Automatic annotation (TrEMBL):
This is Rho GTPase-activating protein 15. Its main location: cytoplasm. Pfam families: PH, RhoGAP. InterPro entries: PH-like_dom_sf (IPR011993), PH_dom-spectrin-type (IPR001605), PH_domain (IPR001849), Rho-GAP (IPR050729), Rho_GTPase_activation_prot (IPR008936), RhoGAP_dom (IPR000198). Residues 1-28 have a biased composition (Polar residues). It is found in: Cytoplasm; Membrane. Residues 294-483 form the Rho-GAP domain. It comes from Lates calcarifer.
C-alpha cells in the first residue's frame, strides 16, 4: 500500500506543473478552485497545495512567523519604528562639561573639555576626538540617556556664560558650556529636539520577545543588548510550546497575559519619566534646602547673614576646647559620627556641640572641612584661582601682600567675611603651635585643597596643590595685614 501511494503521488505531481505562470485569467483561477473542490486522492491534494504555495515565488520574501501573536507584535514594533524617524546626529564638537550630580547625589563641579557627540537618544562625552574614532584607546566614555530628560539655561550653577543644564530621568545633572553663544544655542536646541523626540517615542524603547518580556533600546546593535531576530524568537521555549496550540482559548489567554504585563511596565516607565525633579520638589517645599553642598551666597541669603551659622558654631567650639589639642584639623575624626552631625545640620535640627556625643573635637573639625570641600564653588571662587597664583609668585613681600589683599577685598561679601573669620581663627590656632604641633605649613597643607581648587583639571594637579598650600600659608602669615584684624 505504501509503494502504491508513493506512485500515485508522483504521477499526480507529474500531471500538475509545480510552477504556475505569475499572471492567470479568472477562468484559470476558477479551474484551480474547481480542482480543489473535486480533488479526492491525497496525491491530488498534495500536488495542488504545492502549486498554490509556489505561485507566490515571484513576490518579495518576508520573514515567516509561525504564530499569529508573534506576527501581530512584530507589526506593532515596525510601525512604531517607522512613526519616529531617527534624529539627525550632531557631529562631535569640543564642549566644556561638568557633572554636578550622580543619581541625585551632589558631586564637586569640575569643568572638563570633552569631545561631545549627539545621537537620536544619547549624548556621548569622549576624552578627545581620537577616542571617538577609535584611533586612541583608554579613557571612560560618559553616556547620557536623553529619554525623559530636562534641559534648561542656567545662570545660578556657574559664573560662566552660555551654560545650560541637562537633568536625566535618573537624577544625574550635567552642565554644558561653550564661549560662542551661537554654538551653545545650536547644541541646546538640538539636544532639546532629541529629548522631545525620544520622549514622544515612549522613551526610545521597543519590545524584545523573551521569557522576561523586558524593554530594551530600539537600537539592538548597541553593545550589551541582545539581538531580536526572528530566529532567536523561534528558539524561545515559550514560543515553541505555543506553535502547535491552535486552540482559541490558549491563544487568547497568553495574549491577554502579555498585554497585562506590558501595560504595567508602560505605566511604571511613564511614572518614572514624569516624576518631578529635585528642583521642583524644593520649590514646593517637599524637600528642605540643605546646608552641605549649598552655594555659599545662597546659604547666607537664606540665613540672613554673611557667614554661615554652621561655620560660626564650629569655630566657637574649637576656640573653646580645641586650640591646644594635638593635631587639631590634621587628625581625622570618626567618619560615621561626622556623617551623623552632617545629617542633623541638613535636617535643620537643633545642634548643640557641647553635647557628649560631640565630645571628640576632631569630629567637629572634620565636619567643618567637609562643609568647605562640598561647596559647589570653593571659598576662593574659581575666577580668583589663577590671579592668586600669579600674586603669590611675586618675589617682593610688600607687593605680594598688596596684590593678595586687593584680590581678597574684591571677593563677594559672604566669601570675604567667612574667610576673614576662618583665618582669624586659624591665626589663634597657630598661637598654640607648641601644644597642638600645628605649623603654618601644616595648616596650609590641610586647608589648601579644602578652600580652593581650579575649575578645570587641565593643569598639573601636583603643581596646583603646591600653589594652593602656598596661598593659604601666605594669607595665614599675613592675615592681620590682609584682613585688618587689628582694626576692630
Amino acid at each position: 500500500m505504501a509503494g502504491t501511494r508513493v506512485t500515485n503521488i508522483q504521477s499526480a505531481a507529474k500531471q500538475q506543473p509545480l510552477i504556475q505562470p505569475p499572471q492567470r485569467s479568472s477562468a484559470a483561477q476558477g479551474a484551480v478552485q474547481m480542482r480543489i473542490k473535486n480533488s479526492q486522492s491525497p496525491g491530488d491534494r498534495l500536488s495542488q497545495s504545492k502549486s498554490m504555495v509556489l505561485q507566490e515565488s515571484d513576490l518579495p520574501q518576508k520573514p515567516i512567523s509561525r504564530h499569529r501573536r508573534n506576527q501581530s507584535q512584530h507589526n506593532v514594533v515596525i510601525a512604531g519604528a517607522a512613526a519616529f524617524e531617527p534624529f539627525v546626529e550632531l557631529k562631535g564638537e569640543q564642549l566644556n562639561v561638568a557633572k554636578i550630580s550622580e543619581s541625585g547625589k551632589k558631586q564637586r563641579k569640575n569643568w572638563t573639555s570633552m569631545w561631545t557627540v549627539l545621537t537620536s537618544d544619547q549624548l556621548l562625552f569622549y576624552k578627545d576626538k581620537q577616542q571617538e574614532t577609535g584611533q586612541k584607546s583608554g579613557g571612560k566614555t560618559d553616556v547620557v540617556q536623553l529619554g525623559g530628560a530636562l534641559i534648561e539655561w542656567t545662570t545660578e550653577k556657574s559664573s560662566r556664560k552660555n551654560v545650560f543644564q541637562i537633568t536625566t530621568n535618573t537624577g544625574s545633572e550635567y552642565l554644558l558650556q561653550v564661549e560662542n553663544h551661537s554654538t551653545a544655542s545650536k547644541w541646546h536646541d538640538a539636544i532639546k529636539r532629541a529629548i522631545d523626540s525620544s520622549t514622544k517615542a515612549d522613551g526610545g524603547f521597543s519590545l524584545r520577545r523573551s521569557n522576561s518580556t523586558e524593554y530594551l533600546p530600539r537600537h539592538s546593535s548597541l553593545p550589551g543588548y541582545g539581538s531580536a531576530s526572528p530566529n532567536t524568537k523561534q528558539r524561545n521555549p515559550a514560543h515553541r510550546r505555543s506553535i502547535n496550540m491552535f486552540g482559541s482559548s490558549k491563544l487568547k489567554h497568553s495574549t491577554s497575559d502579555s498585554a497585562d504585563k506590558n501595560g504595567v511596565k508602560n505605566r511604571l516607565k511613564k511614572f518614572i519619566i514624569r516624576r518631578p525633579s529635585m528642583k521642583t520638589l524644593q520649590e514646593k517645599g517637599l524637600i528642605k534646602d540643605r546646608v552641605f553642598g549649598c552655594h555659599l551666597s545662597t546659604l547666607c541669603e537664606r540665613e540672613g547673614t554673611t557667614v554661615p551659622k554652621f561655620v560660626k558654631i564650629c569655630l566657637d567650639a574649637v576656640d573653646k576646647r580645641g586650640l591646644q589639642v594635638d593635631g587639631i584639623y590634621r587628625v581625622s575624626g570618626n567618619l560615621a559620627t561626622i556623617q551623623k552631625l552632617r545629617f542633623i545640620v541638613d535636617q535643620e535640627e537643633e545642634l548643640d556641640l557641647d553635647h557628649s556625643q560631640w565630645e571628640d573635637i576632631h569630629v567637629i573639625t572634620g565636619a567643618l572641612k567637609m562643609f568647605f570641600r562640598e561647596l559647589p564653588e570653593p571659598l576662593f571662587p574659581f575666577r580668583f584661582f589663577q590671579p592668586l597664583v600669579e600674586a603669590v609668585k611675586i618675589k617682593e613681600t610688600k607687593h605680594k601682600i598688596q596684590a593678595v589683599k586687593k584680590l581678597i577685598q574684591d571677593l563677594p561679601k559672604p566669601n570675604h567675611d567667612t574667610m576673614k573669620l576662618l583665618f582669624s581663627h586659624l591665626h589663634r590656632v597657630l598661637g598654640y603651635s607648641r601644644k597642638n604641633l600645628m605649623s603654618t605649613q601644616g595648616i596650609g597643607i590641610v586647608f589648601g585643597p579644602t578652600l580652593m581648587w581650579p575649575e578645570l583639571d587641565a593643569g598639573n594637579m601636583a603643581v596646583n596643590m603646591v600653589y594652593q598650600n602656598q596661598i593659604v600659608e601666605f594669607i595665614l602669615i599675613e592675615s592681620q595685614e590682609i584682613f585688618n584684624l587689628d582694626r576692630k
